């Protein structure tokens, strides 16, 4: 038998003034440990990310100490942006399987909105351009480069891009208010008419800047056996990281998601038809479009077909981002934790209003940098 | 809480990079050609990034290329670019092979994937290292 996700926890998401990132991490960690039926003494591994805007002095040990988790036998701070917490599940499972530790807490939470502020977060992310590249780009215009490629070179339309956001907003609006940053739906027309951030990307097509976070407990089979909760197992994982800077992106038509997804699905032994829920990293709408194509859920330029058939909506063939994603559910930094916890909720039958009936297989994806890092995990409901 | 500032252009710690910027300041865009495997790379590194040979030389890029991707910047990364907005940013595939990211002197409406451009070195100096491309007639 093998290690599995034994518990999860989330803070509310949106605006949470008066908390610093360590306090939010502790909040999420407490929820996850309670869910898993364990206490801080049981945790002997930690995978986390430093709060955004803080330097190297805020990595895993600052979090371990602050959360009362020391001593730990395993500690790491993945640095691959939004793919980090997909990788974190695989890393935690590996560490436990090798016997280096028994219970790993995976936690990502930050106070982007209240402690840093929307404007400073956006400017801080200009570090995604290298010193050899044009210095005036911010992250949205870097992604807009690929969006313009998509519009020029494939059949994808501006409406298709906006539809991705509309699906996220629709799912977010179905959540309990505290569970989604945005609580009202938006349709394609409203999304297209919203102010432009970097053409063709309008405000609702760019990820939110949120306070909040979530945590997972990944535990050994022995710990899971003592718990009543349904475990969620990692059946396959694949990653492909192709570049850091946009001018080194080998090919706009083929991100690392193609190789990462093939490997993850092959390891899991699942076909596209067998996937019940999709969690696709949605820092921008174009990210989802490129990744759905590269994962093979549609042809190049074919997202419009998925949208037309309602395939990505609740009730459709592949309900996607049922929590609202980073565009509408919430985005406490480029980490991807909520895409993982939402998949866990789905597979445990705890996804409330957006529960996919009978969900037992989820594909979770994370993207970091400028399409730079791609991680894919296939999760299954355990016995 | 302090926010880490976006990295300014650092004073290069390496002789290789210092040489690169000095050549660029003269209007010459250097690319790295490997004599062992023929790979052409940018930016230059101490070894060929493809085969790690030390047998490489810098050569001056012709300047011609085609647009790979592009975007109109309305909100620039820094106030010092505020007067230039909207800026047409583009990733350009140089004829030698490597991609570079600069700007196109012209409105974004004139640019699409595949547009032919040519580096205009007239702005390049020790204080301006931005790659500006003109539309090829």
Query: What portion of the residues of chain B fall into strands of 2 or more residues?
Result: 25-35%
Secondary-structure element series of chain B? HEEEEEEEE
Low-confidence stretches of chain A: none
**Cα gyration radius of chain A (Å):** 19 Å
What structural class is derived from the secondary structure elements of chain A?
alpha/beta
How are helices and strands ordered from N to C of chain A? Answer: EHEHEHEHHHHHEEEHEHEHHHHEE
The interface involving the most residues is between:
A-B, 43 and 38 residues
Overall mean pLDDT of chain B stands at 92
| Strand element count of chain B | 8
- Average pLDDT, all residues of chain A: 95
Helix content of chain B: under 10%
Q: Enumerate the spans of chain B where pLDDT stays under 50 for 5 or more consecutive residues.
A: 1-8
Taking the alpha carbons of the first and last residues of chain A, their distance comes to 11 Å
Key terms:
heterodimer; A: 383 residues; alpha/beta; 14 helices; 36% helix; 17% strand; globular; B: 137 residues; mainly beta; disordered N terminus
What is the secondary structure topology, with strand pairs?
The complex is a heterodimer of chains A (383) and B (137).
Chain A: E1 4-10, H1 21-36, E2 45-48, H2 60-66, E3 74-76, H3 84-97, E4 103-111, H4 112-116, H5 118-124, H6 139-153, H7 158-173, H8 188-193, E5 196-198, E6 201-202, E7 211-219, H9 221-225, E8 232-241, H10 257-268, E9 277-279, H11 285-295, H12 303-309, H13 325-329, H14 337-347, E10 361-368, E11 373-381
Parallel strand pairs in A: 2-3, 2-4, 9-10
Antiparallel strand pairs in A: 1-7, 4-7, 5-6, 8-11, 10-11
Helix pairs in contact in A: 7-11, 10-11
Chain B: H1 15-25, E1 30-34, E2 40-41, E3 56-60, E4 64-73, E5 87-94, E6 99-104, E7 116-119, E8 132-135
Parallel strand pairs in B: 6-8
Antiparallel strand pairs in B: 1-2, 1-3, 4-5, 4-7, 5-6, 7-8
């Amino acid at each position: 038998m093998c290690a599995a996700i034994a518990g999860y926890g989330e803070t509310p998401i949106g605006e949470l003034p008066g908390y610093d990132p360590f306090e939010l991490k502790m909040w999420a960690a407490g929820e996850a440990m309670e869910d898993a039926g364990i206490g801080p003494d049981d945790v002997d591994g930690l995978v986390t990310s430093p709060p955004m805007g803080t330097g190297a002095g805020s990595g895993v040990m600052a979090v371990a100490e602050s959360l009362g988790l020391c001593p730990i036998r395993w500690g790491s701070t993945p640095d691959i942006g939004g793919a980090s917490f997909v990788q974190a599940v695989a890393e935690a499972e590996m560490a436990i399987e090798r016997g280096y530790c028994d219970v790993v807490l995976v936690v990502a939470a930050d106070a982007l909105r209240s402690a840093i502020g929307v404007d400073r977060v956006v400017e801080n992310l200009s570090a995604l351009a290298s010193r050899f590249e044009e210095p005036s780009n911010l992250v949205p215009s870097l992604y807009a480069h690929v969006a313009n490629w998509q519009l020029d070179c494939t059949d994808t339309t501006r409406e298709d891009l906006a539809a991705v956001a509309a699906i996220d907003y629709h799912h977010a609006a179905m959540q309990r208010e505290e569970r989604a940053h945005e609580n009202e739906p938006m349709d394609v027309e409203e999304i297209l008419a919203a102010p432009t951030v970097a053409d063709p990307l309008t405000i609702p097509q760019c990820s939110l800047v949120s306070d909040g976070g979530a945590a997972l407990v990944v535990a050994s089979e022995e710990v899971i056996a003592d718990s009543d909760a349904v475990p969620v197992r990692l059946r396959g994982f694949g990653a492909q990281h192709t570049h850091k800077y946009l001018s080194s992106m080998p090919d706009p038509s083929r991100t690392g998601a193609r190789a990462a997804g093939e490997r993850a699905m092959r390891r899991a032994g699942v076909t596209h038809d067998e996937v019940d829920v999709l969690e696709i990293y949605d820092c921008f709408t174009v990210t989802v479009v490129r990744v759905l194509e590269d994962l093979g859920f549609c042809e190049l330029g074919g997202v419009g077909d998925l949208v037309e058939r309602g395939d990505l909506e609740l009730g459709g063939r592949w309900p996607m981002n049922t929590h609202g994603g980073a565009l509408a559910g919430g985005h406490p930094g480029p980490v991807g934790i909520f895409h993982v916890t939402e998949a866990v909720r789905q597979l445990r039958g705890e996804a409330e209003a957006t529960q996919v009936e009978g969900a037992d297989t989820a594909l979770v994806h994370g993207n970091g940098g400028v399409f730079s890092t791609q991680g894919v995990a296939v999760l299954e409901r355990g016995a | 809480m302090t926010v880490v500032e976006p990295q300014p252009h650092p004073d290069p710690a390496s002789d290789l990079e210092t040489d690169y910027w000095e050549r660029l300041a003269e209007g010459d865009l250097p690319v790295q050609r490997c004599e062992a495997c023929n790979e052409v790379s940018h930016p230059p590194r101490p070894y060929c990034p493809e085969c790690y040979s030390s047998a490489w030389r810098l050569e001056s890029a012709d300047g011609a290329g085609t647009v790979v991707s592009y975007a109109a910047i309305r909100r620039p990364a820094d106030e010092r670019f505020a007067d230039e907005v909207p800026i047409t940013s583009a990733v350009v595939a140089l004829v030698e092979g490597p991609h570079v990211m600069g700007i196109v002197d012209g409105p974004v409406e004139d640019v699409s994937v595949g547009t032919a451009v040519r580096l205009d070195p007239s702005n390049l100096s020790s204080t301006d290292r931005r790659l500006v491309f003109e539309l090829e007639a």
